[in-house]
Amino acid sequence: MNDTMVTVVGNVATSVDYRDTAAGGLARFRFAATARRWDRERAVWVDGPTSFYTVSAWRALGANLAASVSVGDPLVVHGRLRVREEDRDGRRRTFVDIDASSVGHDLSRGTCAFRRGPRAERPDAVEAAAVGAGGGVSTAGSVAGAERTPEPVS
Question: Known InterPro entries for this protein (predicted)?
């Protein structure tokens, strides 16, 4: 599939809306990116137009976004670009979305401290590891004592 991948630098424009769905957790927020250029005549930086995107992040990325991001935070968002058109109130409108695969704070504009979250293990990989190591398997299908559920770091 020929998807258009983009990397956009900007700021969080709305609070993160996090929901648990049948396909896993989903986080959504609006993201604003403003182009800047140097005006030689006036010797100042000038803001260009602001572009707004709806960013969606699934599963662990979505949960970590909800726990880590606030309105106004500078971010770097990388993901799949989606452009869609809808008719609303008799007018055709265009929306630009990004299905995020990676998101991080823009460290050129501040500092942050990274905390690694718990790692989710696939049940089939856990069972294979238990059988290969001669370990017991619990009735839940994972190695006894190795049950962990991914939760956002608070």
Answer: NA-bd_OB-fold, Primosome_PriB/ssb
Same domain, 38 and 83: yes
What is the C-alpha separation between 48 and 68, in angstroms, rounded? 28
CA-atom Rg of the chain in angstroms: 21
94 and 125 co-located in one domain? no
Residue bearing tokens 């089939």: 124
Residue written as tokens 């995020």? 100
Same domain for 86 and 125, yes or no, is no
Mean pLDDT (the chain) is: 84
pTM: 0.73
Q: How far is 45 from 37, CA to CA, in rounded Å?
A: 6
b/e map of 19-50 (b: 16 or more CB within 10 Å)? eeeeeebbbbbbbebeeeeeeeeeeeeeeeee
Q: Please give the tally of structural domains in the chain.
A: 2
Residue position matching structure tokens 């989903």 = 26
Predicted pLDDT of residue 117:
81
Which residues, including other chains, have CB under 8 Å from residue 133's CB and lie 6 or more apart?
Answer: none
pLDDT bin (cut points 50, 70, 90) of residue 122 is low
Both tokens assigned to 92: 């055709």
The dihedral sign for the CA sequence 89, 90, 91, 92: positive
